[in-house]
Amino acid sequence: MGTARERPQAAPGAFTAFARFVLCGGAVGLASSFAVAALADRIPWILANALITVLSTLLATELHARFTFGAGNRATRRQHAQSAGSAAAAYAATCAAMLALHQLAATPGAVVEQTVYLTASALAGVARFAVLRLVVFARHRSQAAATVHSVRPLHATATATAVRTCAATGLAELSRAA
């Protein structure tokens, strides 16, 4: 009989996971902004920002692995790499939005800049949540892969049945995740 720690946790629903994502990401983001400001007194701002961005992405990925998406385990190297990729894409999206704004308006006001930046950040955050939930921390991928690797079909019909079963399981998990 396994203890509660050994049993896999049920994945939280989309709303719960999103609330946890906002809470964890927001807390790390807020702490990061103070850390960059403090570190920028000692080293160039761009270096401070890069260092804190790497550290905050590592921390946020661990929090998302353990808490946000209910895995209860440490993030793997693959998950860290994928999370870093999604963070880089979100960063690129916010930069692109600001560049587009400055192409459209020579001197946009602070309110317009903040509105564009925060809107781009919010949209990038929602997209990042979807990527993390459906790709990076998706449980159905590892379960389906284990099923495919453990099946030793005797002939082609058994192989086709196994593939259809894995695909149906993956689609059902995606539907539930959405």
Give a structural overview:
The protein has six helices and no strands. The chain is mainly alpha-helical. α1 (14-39) runs antiparallel to α2 (45-68) and α5 (139-150) runs antiparallel to α6. The longest helix has 28 residues, at 77-104. The two termini are 33 Å apart. Residues 1-6 and 142-178 have low confidence and may be disordered.
Record the SSE blueprint:
Blueprint: H1 14-39, H2 45-68, H3 77-104, H4 110-136, H5 139-150, H6 156-177
Helix pairs in contact: 1-2, 2-3, 3-4, 5-6
Structural class: mainly alpha
Helix content: over 70%
Largest sheet report: none
Count all strands and give the number.
0
Number of helices: 6
Mean pLDDT: 77
* Strand residue percentage: under 5%
Radius of gyration: 21 Å
Which parts are unreliable, with pLDDT below 50 for 5 consecutive residues or more? 1-6, 142-178
Topology as a string of helices (H) and strands (E): HHHHHH
Shape: globular
- Amino-to-carboxy terminus distance: 33 Å
Features:
178 residues; 6 helices; disordered C terminus
Summed up:
The chain is mostly helical. The protein is built from 6 helices and no strands.
